[in-house]
């Protein structure tokens, strides 16, 4: 079962003496970070932490439990009401935690985008067709409120992960309809620039929103040309 948000809020309050505590929702559970390093998580309303040497010394009798099936065992924090213990625990664990993977320098890997697109698209998760969680349901682990954005490329989220490829197959014709001057209301949309779809697996509901950027159309503006000017003449 998924963890309650109230339990997460209580854990965060217990750790409020520490600067840099953040979390990320994942398949109905919550991964916990301290200064960008993962130290544990909330799973089935349990606070579990990585079994580092410092954690085992501070909690020598703490049992090892699985956060979910197939995962590595973690230490169960039983004295969740002891704020001082929790603060000391996370601080001492920090040096043993793996550093986050370095993100590629965007300037080094960015495409040489030369055309300013007409539209920006946002794809937001608005709900689930069945149930209230994504574990063993959506393999991407979508959560309500997750957002993906793009102009012409495939939509990505803030972490750089792309949207489900099967969902993209449904989105692309709608995006092309907008780029061609179409009205999404004619395709069952909520307005000219918005439409809700359900993914091909019948799991997740997405809302597509197009935002006009005021730039000239790619084809009408004559932006397309052959790399070799002579090639077009020879055909």
**What is the percent of helical residues?**
10-25%
Structural class: alpha+beta
Q: State the major sheet.
A: 6 strands, antiparallel
Mean pLDDT: 87
**Count of discrete domains:** 2
Distance between the termini: 63 Å
Poorly predicted tracts of residues? none
Main sheet strand line-up:
1-2-3-4-6-5
Radius of gyration: 24 Å
* Strand residue content: 15-25%
Verbal overview:
- By secondary structure, the protein is of the alpha+beta class.
- It folds into two domains: 5-96, Yope Regulator, Chain: A, CATH 3.30.1460.30; 107-212, no CATH class.
- The chain is 22% helix and 23% strand.
- It has six helices and ten strands.
- It has helices at 5-14, 53-58, 83-93, 106-109, 165-179, 229-234, and strands at 21-26, 29-34, 37-42, 47-49, 64-65, 74-76, 119-128, 147-150, 194-198, 204-212.
- The strands form two sheets. It has a six-stranded antiparallel β-sheet with strand order 1-2-3-4-6-5, covered by helices on one side. Strands 8-7-10-9 form a four-stranded antiparallel β-sheet, with helices on one face.
- The longest helix is centred in the last third of the chain and has 15 residues, at 165-179.
- The model has no long low-confidence stretch (mean pLDDT 87).
């Amino acid at each position: 079962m998924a963890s309650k948000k109230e339990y997460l809020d209580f854990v965060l309050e217990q750790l409020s003496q520490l600067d840099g505590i953040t979390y990320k929702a994942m398949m109905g559970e919550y991964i916990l970070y301290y200064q960008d390093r993962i130290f544990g998580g909330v799973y089935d309303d349990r606070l579990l932490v990585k079994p580092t040497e410092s954690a085992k010394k501070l909690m020598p009798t703490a049992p090892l439990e699985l956060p979910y099936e197939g995962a590595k065992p973690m230490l169960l924090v039983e004295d969740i009401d002891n704020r001082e213990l929790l603060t000391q625990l996370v601080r001492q664990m920090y040096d043993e935690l793996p550093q986050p993977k370095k993100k590629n320098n965007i300037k080094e890997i960015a495409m040489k985008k030369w055309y300013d697109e007409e539209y920006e698209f946002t794809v937001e998760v608005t709900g689930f067709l069945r149930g209230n969680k994504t574990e063993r349901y959506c393999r991407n682990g979508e959560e309500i409120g997750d957002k993906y954005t793009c102009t012409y490329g495939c939509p990505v989220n803030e972490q750089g992960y792309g949207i489900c490829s099967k969902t993209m197959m449904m989105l692309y014709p709608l995006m092309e309809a907008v780029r061609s001057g179409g009205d999404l209301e004619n395709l069952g949309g909520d307005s000219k620039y918005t439409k809700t779809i359900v993914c091909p697996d019948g799991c997740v509901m997405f809302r597509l929103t197009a935002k006009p950027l005021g730039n000239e159309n790619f084809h009408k503006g004559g932006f397309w040309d052959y790399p070799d000017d002579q090639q077009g003449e020879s055909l």
